[in-house]
Amino acid sequence: MDLGLKGRRALVMGASAGLGYAIAEQLVKEGARVAICSRDEGRIREAARRMGASLGVAADLTKPGATKALVEQVVAELGCVDVLVTNTGGPPKGGIEKMTAEQWQEGFQSLWMSVVEGLQAALPGMKERHWGRIILVTSVAAREAMPLLTISNGLRAGLMGLVKTVSNEVAEHGITLNAVQPGYHATERLKELGIPEEKITSQIPARRLGKPEELGALVTFLASEQAAYVTGQSIAIDGGWMRGF
């Protein structure tokens, strides 16, 4: 199936490894011109070389204004951003009494304001071209809270409301906005959380971890021409882990 992405310009955040890398790599395979970013300049340049991305940019999205500047740089170098994929690392674990004000502020900038800045920077150009795809990579924690992921649980839940609100605002301009909510996938983030794999897989009906390329395939479809009527959705990809509807 031709997904209609040849020549489209895409920006994938947090793409030096893991889920972001898998998404960007799939978009490259579909013929898109892809820009990727992460904090570490050496890692992002190597990732861009490895997958064949058009541009690798070092950017710390926990800093106010960094996402806006990133989108502007990619527009200047590639000409526009047709597909925007927001993706940032998860905040540290901890209960409400242990998380500091600084950790909450950094989490808010990383998980929330990076999305807002990205939307505000990318939407005007998408409206002019009457075409755009925006996909937020969030987490199943947005719908089913995970133990001790206090900051992530709280902030990611709010993004579902943002998706519904903004998607309705921009639909008439040929722009779709959706969120994907990964469950447990085989990435470095899982190792950071320190949860034994066998304990996790025993709770997943599919009895295995997700593969990053499976999420990449879902995001690539949402970025395609064929997904033009899919908007305002928050789609879980978790092997059945969530118990709710």
Task: Give a verbal description of the structure.
With 245 residues, the chain is an alpha/beta fold. It has a single domain, classed as NAD(P)-binding Rossmann-like Domain (Rossmann fold), CATH 3.40.50. 44% of the residues lie in helices and 15% in strands. It contains eight helices and seven strands, in the order E-H-E-H-E-H-E-H-E-H-E-H-H-H-E. The chain has a seven-stranded parallel sheet with strand order 3-2-1-4-5-6-7, sandwiched between helices. Helix 1 crosses helix 8 (212-222), helix 3 (66-78) packs parallel to helix 4 and helix 4 runs parallel beside helix 5. The longest helix has 29 residues, at 101-129. It is globular, with a radius of gyration of 17 Å. The two termini are 30 Å apart. The mean pLDDT is 94.
